[in-house]
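Dear colleagues,

I hope this message finds you well. In preparation for our joint manuscript, I am sending the Glycosyltransferase family 69 protein (Jaapia argillacea MUCL 33604) sequence together with its predicted structure, so that both groups work from identical material. I would be grateful if you could confirm receipt.
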Amino acid sequence: MAFTVRRRSVHRLLMLLGLVLFFRIFISFTSPASSSEKAASREVKQRNVLDLVTRSGKTFDVQRHKFLQVRMGRDEREDLFSDIVRNGVADFWERFQRPYIMGTETSHIDAQHVYTAIDSLLSLNGWVAALCPTLTRPFGQNKYEDAYDDLVRENHLYFIGIVIHSADHFLVDQLAVIVQMAKRLGPTNLFVSMLDYDSTDSTETLTDLCEAVLTLLGIPFRIRRVPSMTEDPSAAYYPVEEAYMRNLALEPLHELHQKRSIKFFRVVWLKGFTCPNDILETIKVSVLNEAAMVCGMDWAKHNDFFIFSDRWRTRDIEGDQFRQSKSSSKPDAGPPRDRAGAARYAEHLPFQVFCCESGTHVVDPAQSYYQGIMYRSGEDYQNVTSGEPIRDRGADAPCLDSCQAWFCRDLWVSKAKEGMREEEAADGVVERRLRKRQIDMTERDVETVKREVGVDDDEKREARRQVADVDADANVGSDYDAMPESDFPEDDFPPIRLSIPNSVFRPARILVNPRCVTTYADVSHAQLALDLFGPERDNDVSDSGLSKYVLEDWEGAPESFVCQEQRQTGGRKAPKTQRRLEFSIHDALERGL
Ligand SMILES: *[C@@H]1O[C@H](CO)[C@@H](O)[C@H](O)[C@H]1NC(C)=O
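The corresponding structure tokens are as follows:
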């Protein structure tokens, strides 16, 4: 295994090696082979220290059900430190552990060791997570220890998904966040699914560490490593890979549902780094709004400031791309462009969007995965490596964008379908309404609608152009996946086709919670928090009501959106193009998507 040596990371890795060594011993101790060893481990398991911090009514008993803690596709290749680690483990085991474990009279000492180890593990704070309680947040979120007690009392099951693609530098803090969540929500109320997609850095060692920690804490998990879909990473088509990785990470969710009828309450996708309280709050926003998806906001360092950094997948409720704003920019130049979103963003309140991902996000599986929605992507991309010719794609061909964008559109269509089914069942209102509308659309109406929509779009486009002219942030820096901001050519705009307006359908509830900050390497969290929320004021804490969580008015989907697509292979950084594409829920329903 090649260790990727990053700044300041060498001593961290050495420290981790020590930890891994230490935990491996405990693993070998908690899964012993001989019968006398079993006696010792039984005692540890019987007394399950974690019961101290968990609640009763366990669905997941990891001691009884071995399939709840599984490692798949472990990389068994020898690496530079294999010998050292192996010898160290064997030595420690033979001299310090085995003699005591073999003697039943001293087994309580071993149990004590495990208690102590678990205790110190539960205070695992990571390097960044330790700072979280000191960061400013609006409404005094961090000041109330009991702010999430109601959530905790409900004793729901949460599925935590992590996809790791050579991003070892987040993993220890992500593990710390999981441990902190386990402490609050109960270790057996979580299921952790980690998918390592062909990482070439020290992810392998760190997933060993995760395995050890999760095993000791009795948290169910599946840690799985899979090889890359293509031999040559530059011949890959990223949206396909993205969908593949996420669906694989979701496999345990579907298996537990199909085979054991276990349903999860929420799925939390951990990305980058997010503070545990911010995640709990986002779960709360999700619950109170019955939202299909609630995202945080991604901030990355760029030169000396922080910029919003998920413009590939995020679209405001008008279908427009977010601005690449600085964290310190005025609220009216903040990331969301639509008026309602911007106004709520300025007040740090959750706002509705057409689509988001933005780092850590919370998905309601009942409105998505359990409805049969999977991650997917476009298929008629061009494989430039194999020399495929450029395919002619119509102006209204499906958008070849990220799998998250497909997921969002699927959420909208699925919600509309659900709404129609329910209303049809009630009294056939929607169907009648739709049929009536179609009949009412005379030639004259067609012209009127065409004109109205056309004018509206021209205005929007003009507004957009003006924004681009004055928006100093717009073209600064680059976030990883998004293409540079640019206007699309006029004639690329598809002709307006007539359809049933999206506003007649039940809206999907997709929200961004701007208080849930997701960050990446090198971000000064204290500074970012100050930029975004200012110093915490005393009067902030007075608002403990629902107003800071609940959105009252829900918009329908936009009739068109900025489609930023990757039409060819070439990995994550393959060139992208942009057009504005119509989005008709009615058409999608007709086509049976
Ligand atoms: C593209 O073609 C190359 C060469 O034939 C192949 O190795 C690769 O897997 C293909 N990529 C995709 C995404 O199918």
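For the figure legend, we might mention the following. Residues 1-10, 27-56, 439-479, 486-491 have pLDDT under 50 and may be disordered. The CA atoms of residues 384 and 569 lie 6 Å apart.

With kind regards,
E.M.
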